[in-house]
Amino acid sequence: MRIGAVIRTKGIGKVYGEGTAAFRALSDVDLEISSGELTLLMGPSGSGKTTLLSILGCILRASGGSLEILGERADQLAEGELPRIRRETIGFVFQGFNLFPALTALENVALALDVRGLRRADAEKRAAELIREVGLADKSDSYPEDLSGGQKQRVAIARALAGDPPIVLADEPTAALDSTSGKNVIELLRRLAHEHGRAVVMVTHDPRVLSYGDRIIHLEDGRIVREENGAEQMESAFAVAG
Amino acid sequence: MGLLARRNLFHDKVRFAVTLTGIVFALVLIIIQFGLFLGFTTTTSNNIDHSNADVWIVFHGVGYFDTGRTFSERKFYQVLATPGVAEAEKYMQAFARWQRPDGRIENIQIIGVRPGSSMGQPWDVVSGSASALKEEDAILVDELYREKLGVQKIGDRVEIGGHRARVAGFTRGIRSFTTSPFVYASFKNSLDYTNPTSSEGDVGYILVKAATGVSVEELKKNLNVRLTDVDIYTTAEFSAKTRFYWMFTTGAGLAVLTAALMGLVVGVAVVAQTIYAATMDHIREYGTLKAMGATNSYLYRVLIEQAVWSAVLGYALAMIVAHFIVASSEKGGAVILMPLEMKLGMFVLAIFMCVVAAMVSINKVTRLDPAMVFRG
Ligand SMILES: Nc1ncnc2c1ncn2[C@@H]1O[C@H](COP(=O)(O)OP(=O)(O)OP(=O)(O)O)[C@@H](O)[C@H]1O
Ligand SMILES: [Mg+2]
User: Fold this and answer.
1) Which positions ≥6 away from A58 have C-beta within 8 Å?
2) Across all residues in chain A, what is the average pLDDT?
3) Among A112, A95, A214, A203, CA closest to A164
4) Rounded CA gap, A201 and A57, in Å?
5) Do A60 and A54 contact (CB within 8 A), yes or no?
6) Domain residue ranges of chain B, discontinuous segments joined by +
7) Could you state, in order of their start, the residue ranges of all structural domains in chain A?
């Protein structure tokens, strides 16, 4: 058992569709995710990474198995309880940023606080702090269309942090970014884990980011096939290179 | 939440313009159709509604205003002698031939009433006066029909049923539901103009006013005891019967009403479609909100607020457009009425349509699989 595990799964499976159209996307996933670590989820396309991340984030229900988040059995909660779990414990970062184009950077972050019931003035004050934390103080009044990809993703990360969640889940957050912006985003996510003690799970295809992961979990055909810590991964990367 | 609703509406100006256009189109369409229906029904019973009488006595079986069947003057005296009657007037309604100064013939509908009576007078007289009907050969016509009747001003002379007539004044906005305009004359002259052929007598209708302290129902009862071969209606009853006849027995109104209901259906569909499309444009954002932990009720509030904003602005614009249309209809043969009740009703309808349409899309949003937000 890992120290400080905030997410625990046992025997998680997911079947999409029914009958002859049924498709098993995940099988028997046992996983523990710890605070203070950047966990990378890797695997070929269609291996179930997004499916697993959605289940961990309580936006998709598993077909079987148990899911524990901060000691609470999320798989046993009623549908109406899940928004609360997401608000209180999870921040999401998406490949496509999913910012609200009609809102400024600051307002995008403030919206996440509005969802949590903060008053407008408090929300804007806190949003300004978060925007500063991700290094975009001078862009807080810009609209998403006027920001670069890397800046958009940093706004999205500020938004993910709005509820001060112990868990941050990111699905290919660097896939749409150039390498410099991608590096900035990864470093930011790693800092969230290492300096703020959050559990950060990141799905990635990007071999450039491997060195940043504390743990790397490999999925294939919906199963965990291998797990390495960052150091091992570095070695195997060198081995391939050498 | 309020911020998101408003910003999303105004952010894409083209989309918002399309949404508003849809709502305005729908509302104006409904206003025109129902306004026409209202205009038609009001037109059919206009003379009854403006008669200022309490009771209308008609020949037995006469079910509506525009049908002619006369009876003996004797009944008029029986009415006068009935307890509870304050006033009674003979009233005439009949079709007649109008010969324009240039010789052309038009059909008209003569209304004959004693000049100076408190009942049955032409109203909204804009030049000349109703009391001028007591002058020799005097008639009043509506200015809407100047062209059709070939008269322009007071003093113009024409012939009706072979008798001389002289325009002594004009009314404004007294339309006829048939193609024959109303022409007002004294009761006496109206008999010359129309030559009633009935052997029964010369009286078309008798208008009655109840004495103070006598209820209309009581008056009806008293009259019923004394009179035979007539039907006795309150003004409201006869008005309703006339409207009903034109609207439903002839099928004319049914056509208008069907058009009005079609307008409602098309309008609702247009609004539902625009609001739905506007919601679907932002479906990914709603998915993101859900992933962020927004509850369904939060999403409801955003969507309903957007719907209400759209409804209010669409309504305001629709009212401006409708006012122009209503104003211009007043100069034409078919008036579009938009009374206060209709304005209020349209406001409620606008809000209702937009919110219902939003509800339909809400269904889509709250059932949305939040995993969609991850798709690139
Ligand atoms: N809603 C769904 N209905 C049916 N099948 C689905 C659904 N979502 C995903 N799948 C299938 O499940 C499998 C896993 O999908 P998932 O999106 O989790 O893969 P992934 O590892 O994230 O792939 P990628 O790297 O391309 O993003 C795929 O074969 C996919 O086609
Ligand atoms: Mg994926």
Assistant:
1) A67, A69, A74, A82, A85, A86, A90
2) 91
3) A112
4) 10
5) yes
6) 2-43+251-374, 61-228
7) 36-58+82-241
For A118-134, what is each residue's pLDDT tens digit?
999 999 999 999 999 99
Q: Ligand 1: distance of its center to the CA of A11 in Å?
A: 19
* Block residue for tokens 């606008």: B350
Q: Residue B214 burial (CB < 10 Å; 0-12/13-18/19+)?
A: middle
Interhelix angle for B252-281 vs B13-44, to 10°? Answer: 170
Q: What is the pLDDT of residues B14-53, one digit of tens each?
A: 888 988 998 898 899 889 988 988 888 888 899 999 999 9
Give the list of residues 6+ apart from residue A183 with CB closer than 8 angstroms, or none. Answer: A208
Question: Interhelix angle for A120-133 vs A149-160, to 10°?
Answer: 130
**C-alpha–C-alpha distance, residues B149 and B347, integer Å:** 41
pLDDT in tens, B107-164: 999 999 999 899 999 999 999 999 999 998 999 999 999 999 999 999 999 999 889 9
Q: Which residue reads 């025109």 in tokens?
A: B32
ipTM attached to this prediction: 0.90
Pocket probe for ligand 1: among A24, A26, A29, A50, the residue whose CB has the most ligand atoms within 8 Å is: A50
pLDDT of residue B176: 87
A36-58+82-241, CATH topology level = Rossmann fold (3.40.50)
Ligand 1 atom with minimal separation from the A44 CA = 25
Please name the residue whose Cα sits nearest to atom 9 of ligand 1: A51
